[in-house]
Amino acid sequence: xxxxxxYAVTAAVLVFYFVLVGSRGxxxxxxxxxxxxxxxxxxxxxxxxxxxxxxxxxxxVRRANALAAELDAEGxxxxxxxQRTPGGRIDRDSADEVFAKRKAETEVAPDDWRTxxxxxxxxxxxxxxxxxxxxxxxxxxxxxxRPVQQL
Length: 151
Fold this sequence. Notes:
The mean pLDDT is 89. It is built from 5 helices and no strands. The chain has 151 residues and is mainly α. It has helices at residues 2-31, 34-74, 92-108, 113-125, 129-144. The radius of gyration is 21 Å and the shape is elongated.
């Protein structure tokens, strides 16, 4: 719940920022000189890119959460078997051990979105966010029956 609240607050702040920047772009365009119109158009491009990026990330998070809910209903969510340091951080060797298990599961069943979901969680636990995201994208594509890009 805390993560959802953080995401919602961050998204709201970004939308406010996009509106603020967009209004400044419009003001520059309304000035009417060649330089201000050029800068105004350039400034308007930034919020458009930002809104697109925010939309794509929100879709990704919603799809990943839907997969998690479906996997939870099946009883297939990965069990937290990671060792922790006294400070509460995940032990790196423990994360590597669990990752090896998840990778082996995925190699046995490469067309099962469930194994890719669990592999994405293992990548995340090992602090490899780019690979975690790619594995989750693959899980989503397999679940939706879309063509899958190679990792």
